[in-house]
Design goal:
Elements: H1 5-17, H2 20-43, H3 47-66, H4 74-95, H5 98-123
Helix pairs in contact: 2-3, 2-5, 3-4, 4-5
Length: 135
């Protein structure tokens, strides 16, 4: 078996040097990737492979749940959303329903895109002088 050790080292280094915000983005991207792979596996009638990809998405969602900072009120809303996604993943895994996975995929993409936008907004420097009456 041939492994791409250079790429694996790069991936490992990317994870080890990523900020918490970047790690969250990587997790969203991973969940989207695995959900897409589960859908393709269902299309190819590869039920065990689909199961494995769905459980990987479930693992990522579980990680999001356990890392929620509950001192912020928004954490409860995220927990409800993640719980719903997990329920749908369990249903998709039991029924092997591609439409349920596509619904989950839509939520994951929306959460990922929102997270990316939040990361961009967090990088915008705050203007110290908000009263710019120079004219």
């Amino acid at each position: 078996m041939i492994t791409n050790t250079g790429y694996n080292k790069y991936q490992n280094n990317s994870i080890l040097t990523a900020s918490p915000q970047e790690l969250t983005l990587m997790l969203y991207n991973g969940a989207i990737k695995f959900c897409n792979q589960a859908i393709v596996s269902l299309d190819n009638n590869e039920m065990e492979t689909a199961h494995n990809y769905i459980t990987r998405v479930e693992d990522i969602i579980d990680e999001f749940i356990v890392t929620l900072n509950e001192k912020y009120p928004v954490a409860e809303s995220f927990k409800k959303m993640y719980d719903y996604i997990n329920e749908r993943l369990v249903e998709a895994n039991i029924t092997k329903d591609k439409e349920v996975l596509e619904e989950v995929l839509g939520f994951l993409r929306e959460l990922r895109d929102t997270w990316k936008e939040a990361m961009k907004l967090a990088k915008i420097p705050k203007n110290k002088d908000t009263n710019n009456d120079t004219e």
